[in-house]
Each structure stands twice: as structure tokens, then as C-alpha cells.
Design a protein that fits this description.
globular, mainly alpha, 469 residues, 17 helices
Length: 469
């Protein structure tokens, strides 16, 4: 095995120290995506309220269409971690290559959506100016899908082996790149054209290109130092691919039903008013600063549970999960309290560039401040949902989280929100009550599913003896 894997094996298994050491870099790297999103929104606030109103629905729509292949590709993390725990490096390589081929194929397929964007957005009922901005942002991100998905597949090679510091450093350089290009292209600094919301999307795609370039360099170094047969395993493995899809496709559908539910929710909010949509965008962007690091935390849980399951250490998988639940509640409870105590400070970055636009932000800020109280309450239950669904998926239980998320997103959140906008007084608070109920119910039911213990009997990888070279 590699020296990096040997170092990871020296971590005290099943302890809080192991969890923090693996999770912290992933929380920071996941938080970089939130920073990139927040950078787009903060800079676009200086362009117009229409641009600010458009960026989050367009971003949510993009992640809704990309999240199925993204979720499938990301499940390489579980296969790699379980194969590492079982001591099968050649199978780690085989799983990695299946994820790369899937990333390339699905990324190219997504390009077929580009001609459909504007006709679809015309059906949403958004103001024409907002819909045009949404189309520009979505199409630019969609054009970069092959690069984005392949970069994600490459990241799984490192995160699956618990080499999470590598992922963190690559993500951090992408944030710096995105901020610089964002500023240049959104406002047209110096010789660069003023592209507005399209420039923000170009900055994001170019940052993904830098991530992929970094991973390719690091993979080449691994190929030389670890002396593993990277080229020999660069082929489709039909049996492994089908098993990969068996577990990975529900994982991708889990992402889809969750993201599509919130995308539908945002489209319904947009029917109330542009101000309501902009306030919701700000609240969700601030919520992202809490939630997106939780996604990295969830990846760490999935990795560690997968590693312990591959090694046949179910007790350590259980211990890791409950420790993670405690840390998740501590994180979301603490940050939620800060939102209640200092809402104006949390919102200030989103209005930093707005003075030159001459827009009155007082009504928008007042509405967003109320929404932050909802965020503070439901974030604790969001932590429970992320922790226990990640543990279940790390063990191979990918179907239940997908079905539960579908039921909660569409029956508890979207359906009541639609009823409010179609048949009642269209008050924003009622829509946000439905969104909060969705997260609370999902979090509690994920805990009950985990406690039932069915996940302990699932086998993701084939059995057999270790094959350490």
C-alpha cells in the first residue's frame, strides 16, 4: 500500500480523533463550494436584484440535473474505502476507473440539455429578465459538466483512502481562482469584458478546470510512487460496473429528489415576488455556509463507515456514527445560535456591493432576517439527516435514504408549498414552515432507520482475502 494509506492506517480506529482528522479537511473543502456560491451572490448583488434573484434558482436547477450522475460518481468513495479496509488495492483502482468512465459519459450527455433551458424556464412564471439571467448561468455551468464530474471522480481516489488533506488543498486553490476570475468578469475589470451573471458562471467552471488539473498531476505522482497498475485497470469491468450502479444509482437519485424538491420550492417562492425570492436566496446562501460543510462531514462518515465495514469492524462503524451525530449537533446548534443573535452580520456580505446599484435593501434585509430564524431551528435536524444517511450509504443502504428523501421533499415540502401559492394568501412564512417540516421529519426518521440495524447485513464489495502487494 502507499505511504499515504499507511499513515491513515495509523489513526486510532473508531475514535473521535480519527473522525476529526478525516472530517475536518472535507468540511473545509465542502465549505469552499459554499464560498464560491456566496462569492457569486455577493458580487451579483452589485449588478441588479434580478441577477441576484436568478443565481440561486439557476444554480439549484443545475445541481438538480447534474446530481444523479454526481451521486453515482461520488459512490466511488464507498467502494474505494471498503476495498481499502479489505486490503484490495487493485479493486480500488478498478472502482476508480468505473467512476471516471461514468463521469465522462454522463457529463457529455448533459450537454444535450442546453437547447432546452430557455423553453423550460419560460414555464416557471419568473420575470423575463430573471429567466434570461437564469438561462445564462445554467447553460454555462452545464457546459462544464464533463470537467466537473471527472474532477469529482478523481477526488474520490483520495477521499476514499482517507487522504482528505489533498482534497482540501485542491478545493482551496479553486476558491482563490474563482474569487479572482469572478471579480474580473462580473464587473469587467481592466481588459476583461463585463459579463455579469455569465461571468460568475465562467469563473466557477474555470475553477473546476484547475481542480482537475491538480488531481491529474497528483494521480500521476501516485502512479509512480505506489507502483499500482493504473493503466492495466483502465477498462470497463462489467460485474463491478453493475454492482457500482446497483448501489450508486439510488445514491444519485437521493441527490436528485432532494435537489429537485428544493428547486421546485424556489420556483414556487419566485411566484410570490422577486423580493421574496431574493430573500430566500440570501437565507439559503447563509444556510449553505452551515450545511455544505456538513456534506463534507457526511463524506467523512461515509468513508469511515465504509472502511470499517470493509475491514469487518461493525462496532467501530457504529461508534464513529454516534460520535459524528454529537459533533453535527454541536456544529449546527452553535452556528444556528449565531444566526439568531447576529443576523445582520451574517447578511452584511450580501449587501457589500449593493450601494452602487442604488437599490433599497431594507425590505429585502428585513425579510431575510426572519428566514434566518427558520434556518437556525431546522439546521440541527439537518445534521441528523446528513450524519445517519451518510452512515447508511457508507454501509450500502442507499435505497431507504432515497425513498425517505423523496417522500419528505415532495409530500411534506413541495405539495404544501404549491397549495399555499395556488389557493391561499401566498405568505412566504408558510412556505418556509413546509421546508422546515421536511428537514425535521427526514432527520428523525433517518435516526430510526439507523437504529433498526438492517445496514449491518449489507455487503457492497465481494468477499475474499486481502491482497496487499
Amino acid at each position: 500500500m502507499s505511504s499515504a494509506s499507511t499513515e491513515a492506517d495509523q489513526l486510532p480506529s473508531g475514535t473521535l480523533r480519527e473522525l476529526v482528522r478525516v472530517a475536518l479537511p472535507l468540511m473545509l473543502s465542502s465549505g469552499t463550494q459554499s464560498l464560491m456560491n456566496a462569492t457569486d451572490r455577493a458580487m451579483l448583488a452589485g449588478c441588479s436584484e434580478d441577477a441576484l434573484a436568478a443565481v440561486t434558482p439557476a444554480s439549484m436547477l443545475y445541481w438538480t440535473v447534474v446530481c444523479v450522475p454526481m451521486g453515482v460518481v461520488l459512490y466511488a468513495n464507498t467502494f474505494i474505502s471498503q476495498y481499502e479496509g479489505a486490503g484490495k488495492p487493485e479493486r480500488m483502482l478498478a472502482a476508480f476507473w468505473q467512476s471516471c468512465w461514468l463521469a465522462l459519459a454522463t457529463g457529455l450527455l448533459l450537454l444535450g440539455l442546453l437547447p432546452l433551458t430557455r423553453p423550460f424556464l419560460a414555464l416557471t412564471g419568473h420575470a423575463p429578465a430573471v429567466a434570461e439571467f437564469e438561462a445564462q448561468y445554467f447553460n454555462t455551468l452545464c457546459a462544464g459538466s464533463p470537467i466537473t464530474l471527472i474532477a469529482v471522480a478523481c477526488s474520490c481516489w483520495f477521499s476514499g483512502q482517507r487522504r482528505t488533506g489533498v482534497v482540501m488543498l485542491v478545493s482551496m486553490q479553486a476558491v482563490v481562482w474563482n474569487f479572482a476570475v469572478d471579480y474580473l468578469l462580473v464587473y469587467g475589470i481592466g481588459p476583461f469584458p463585463e459579463l455579469g451573471i455569465r461571468g460568475a458562471a465562467i469563473a466557477t467552471v474555470s475553477a473546476r478546470c484547475t481542480e482537475l488539473a491538480c488531481y491529474l498531476v497528483l494521480l500521476r505522482q501516485d502512479a509512480r510512487s505506489q507502483k499500482l497498475p493504473f493503466r492495466a485497470e483502465c477498462r470497463l469491468d462489467r460485474e463491478l460496473l453493475f454492482r457500482y450502479l446497483r448501489f450508486g444509482l439510488p445514491n444519485g437519485l437521493h441527490f436528485f429528489v432532494d435537489n429537485s424538491g428544493f428547486a421546485a420550492f424556489l420556483l414556487l417562492v419566485g411566484r410570490i415576488s422577486s423580493t421574496a425570492l431574493a430573500a430566500t436566496n440570501i437565507a439559503f446562501s447563509i444556510n449553505g455556509l452551515i450545511f455544505i460543510p456538513l456534506l463534507g462531514f457526511g463524506t467523512a462518515i461515509q468513508t469511515l463507515v465504509g472502511h470499517h465495514m470493509g475491514a469487518g469492524q461493525i462496532a467501530l462503524a457504529r461508534r464513529t456514527t454516534w460520535q459524528a451525530a454529537g459533533l453535527g449537533i454541536l456544529w449546527t446548534g452553535g452556528t444556528g445560535l449565531l444566526l439568531v443573535l447576529f443576523p445582520q452580520a451574517a447578511m452584511q456580505p450580501f449587501f457589500f456591493f449593493s450601494s452602487d446599484a442604488g437599490a433599497s435593501i431594507a425590505p429585502l434585509a428585513a425579510q431575510a432576517e426572519v428566514l434566518l430564524q427558520f434556518v437556525a431551528v431546522y439546521s440541527v435536524f439537518d445534521a441528523l439527516a446528513v450524519v445517519f444517511s451518510s452512515a447508511l450509504r457508507g454501509a450500502g443502504d442507499t435505497v431507504f435514504p432515497m425513498l425517505l428523501t423523496f417522500a419528505c421533499s415532495w409530500l411534506v415540502m413541495v405539495l404544501p408549498a404549491w397549495l399555499v401559492t395556488e389557493h391561499f394568501d401566498r405568505q412566504l412564512r408558510w412556505l418556509w414552515l413546509a421546508a422546515s417540516a421536511n428537514i425535521i421529519v427526514a432527520g428523525l426518521l433517518m435516526v430510526l432507520r439507523y437504529r433498526a440495524g438492517a445496514w449491518q447485513k449489507i455487503r457492497v464489495i465481494e468477499s475474499g482475502k486481502k491482497s496487499v502487494p
